[in-house]
Structure formats: structure tokens, C-alpha cells
Amino acid sequence: MLGKRIIPCxxxxxxxxxxxxxxxxxxxxxxxxxxxxxxxxxxxxxLVFLDISATAQKRKTLVALVEAVxxxxxxxxxxxxxxxxxxxxxxxxxxxxxxxxxxxxxxxQPDLINQLAHHFGSQCVVVAIDAKYVVGQWKVHLVGGxxxxxxxxxxxxxxxxxxxxxxxxxxxxxxxxxxEGFANAALAQLSNTLSIPIIASGGAGEQQHFxxxxxxxxxxxxxxxxxxxxxTLPIPKLKAYLNKHQIPVRL
Length: 251
Prior knowledge:
The protein is an alpha/beta fold. The protein is 35% helix and 28% strand. The chain has helices spanning 32-42, 63-72, 86-94, 104-108, 111-120, 153-162, 184-193, 207-215, 226-229, 235-244; strands at 5-13, 16-21, 24-30, 47-51, 77-80, 99-102, 125-134, 137-142, 147-152, 167-172, 198-201, 221-224. The chain has an 8-stranded parallel beta barrel, surrounded by 6 helices. Helix 1 packs parallel to helix 2 (63-72). The protein is globular, with a radius of gyration of 16 Å.
């Protein structure tokens, strides 16, 4: 079995790391460069940087901040927020990103997934999907969760894979920030349906939630924010726990 990845996420707003609950009530969580440096030292497998207000504000990702974070770490680095073109991705890769994450733009112009996979390779393209359980169905939401769509999570995920995405970052809006566990049934359905890796996001609160995401949700990686930002769950301690439960992780 391939090693499972632990991925801290830096949600960036106005140059600071923030964290909320169900995508609302954001509070400051610290300096992104300092946090990134700490996570790399603690043994994070990758780092995700999401400029969460870039799309809503119709602007590009903060390139200078991306570059500063990239210089502080030596682990794979995924950047998202406000990406709408091949040129945007080229710029981010030149400033230290290893992969990019697209979300709203992928739904609005699905061919962008094909273009990015063609230009940079599927391994570079992560499609983030924010979804909410609405009347018995998981529905995709855009622009930081503020715009509901009629898209079904599982149908969209299949299309994303067919178009060349290398990974899917699935965030359950219902679980986000609640610290009550990941959306494991939805994760398992995604994992059973798709052949590309699935990153679980939304709901991490304790060690067992990560174990459940890997065993019950069949996720390939688990992403979290506040439990790492506020040191509720140090990464070395989490990895030791997972290792003890026979879940393969890089120690």
C-alpha cells in the first residue's frame, strides 16, 4: 500500500492564514510563512496554499506570498485561488508551486482542466471540489462555497478525472471546521469510483478522524487546518498514531 499523506492547508485571506467553520466566521491563524516552515520541519508530506478570496475578489493569487512560502519549505507545494488560465499556472510554477488547485474555474470552463493537463501534466493538476449534502445529494458549490450549483459531486468528479486531473481535493462543507470527522461515506464512494488519488478535507478534530478517513473513507491523503495551526494535533504525534495502527505513513 502506498504511504498515506498528511497535508496542512493554509487558507489565505489578506495575506494571513485564516480558519472558519462551514466556510464562515473566519479568524486569524497566523503568518503563512512561519506556519509553512513549521509544518515542513514537523514532517508534513505536502502543503496546500489556497487564496480563498481571490476568486470572489476577481483577482490573481498572491504571487509574492507564494514565493516566500515556497522558499521556506522543502516539501511538495500546491497553490490555488483565482487561477483561470495556463499563464496563471506558469507564473505560479515559476514562483515555487509544484502543483496547482483549481475549483470554480474548472466548473465554469471545464476545458481548462484539459489544457492544464496537456501543458503541465496531470500530476500538476489538482481539482478542488467543495460540496454540500442537499436534499439527499452532494451538490458542488463555487466561489468559496457561496454559490450553489446543480452539479452532482460524483458525476463532476468522474468528468474531472476524464479531463486529465491528477488528484481531487474533496471538501465537505457540512464537516468543515466542525472537528467531528471527515465525510467518510462520500470519500469511499469517490475512491471506489475513481482511479486518481482523493484528498479528504473538512472535519478533522482528533487522531481517529484521520485513521477513519484512510480506512473507512479510503482516502489517499488527509488535509486539515485548525488542528495543525493551533497545535491541537502535532503532525509527529499524529503520524506515530497512524503508524501504530498499521497505516503506512512517512515518519
